[in-house]
Amino acid sequence: MTDDAWLDKIEKTLRQFARRHRFAYAKSERVVAAAFEIGCFHSLVQYYAEDCTVSAENLQDGKFRYLTSPNGNPANFSYVVIKHHRTTYELRQQVRVRSSINSDIAFTPDIVVFRTRKRVKSHKDPDYANGKRTFFYVDASDLVSLHECKCMNPFPELMVSFLGMVFAAFPWATEPAFGNRIDKKSLHLAPSLFVGGSARGLHLKMVTALKASFPVNMILGMHYGTWDLTRDEANLNKIKVS
Question: Residue by residue, what is the 3-state secondary structure of 169-215?
Answer without folding.
Answer: HCHHHHCHHHHHHECCCCCEECCEEEECCCCCHHHHHHHHHHHHHCC
